[in-house]
Amino acid sequence: MTNSLFNIFNILLAWLLYFAVHSALASRSVKNWAVEHWPRFGPYYRLAYNLVAVILLVPPLWLVHSSRAAPLWAWHGAWGWLMNGLALGALAGFWWSLRYYDMGEFLGISQARNSDHGRRFSLSPLHRFVRHPWYCFGLVIIWTRDMNAAWLTSCVLITLYFIVGSRLEERKLVAEFGDAYRRYRQRVPALFPLPGRYLSRAEAEKIIAGPIT
């Protein structure tokens, strides 16, 4: 096996291991098992989960960064401006969307401070157009970069994981929010906005409030 293929194999393995551990830790069964064996750990589970997720990102990202793979394509001229513009727009959208997220809850800080912390179903402006706006922004960013074999492998795997991960995440959201989330999912696409498939502000408020009549 050549060094190039060996590097790609290592990158593939590192990402697959990351996704496997990340998905396992995100599952209700693993969380319930941890809480059952260490009840006092329950409020800190989300915080620990995020810390582990960040730490485990280091190996695959380091392998990609250190790869000597030859470039497959690079964006130049007008295409370069377009791709960089899309990436900057995605970063701006991500930054703007932070105001609509409870970052204390997302990071696990709120749960650590209050073991009885609960959530209610709500929709930000971006969620009226796409169910997973952060995944959407992430896909735009990774696919608008210059590409070599290491990065292409990573992009394909990340895209597949976003698709599968979003479906696993939505199982938990349906279990948590029931019919409200089912009605929302029927109206709004998952990863990218589509013409005619979005909610007006009034429609979003009606879904949050109760059954559509």
Describe the structure.
With 213 residues, this protein is an all-alpha fold. It has 10 helices and 2 strands. Strands 1-2 form a two-stranded antiparallel sheet. The model has no long low-confidence stretch (mean pLDDT 88).
- Poorly predicted runs: none
Spell out the helices and strands N to C: HHHEHHHHEHHH
The biggest beta sheet, please?
Answer: 2 strands, antiparallel
Estimated helix fraction: 55-70%
Gap between N and C termini: 62 Å
Number of helices: 10
Q: Per DSSP, what share of the residues sits in E-state strands of 2 or more residues?
A: under 5%
The chain-level structural class is mainly alpha
Rg, please?
20 Å
Q: Numbering strands along the chain, what is their spatial order in the largest sheet? A: 1-2
Q: How many E strands? A: 2
Shape: globular
Q: Round the mean pLDDT to the nearest integer and report it.
A: 88
Task: Give me some keywords for this one.
single chain; about 210 residues; mainly alpha; two-stranded antiparallel ribbon; 2 strands; about 70% helix; globular
Task: Sum this structure up briefly.
Helix content is 68%, strand content 2%.
Topology:
Elements: H1 3-26, H2 28-37, H3 45-66, E1 71-73, H4 77-97, H5 103-107, H6 109-113, H7 133-143, E2 147-148, H8 149-177, H9 179-187, H10 201-209
Antiparallel strand pairs: 1-2
Helix pairs in contact: 1-3, 1-8, 4-7, 7-8, 8-9, 9-10
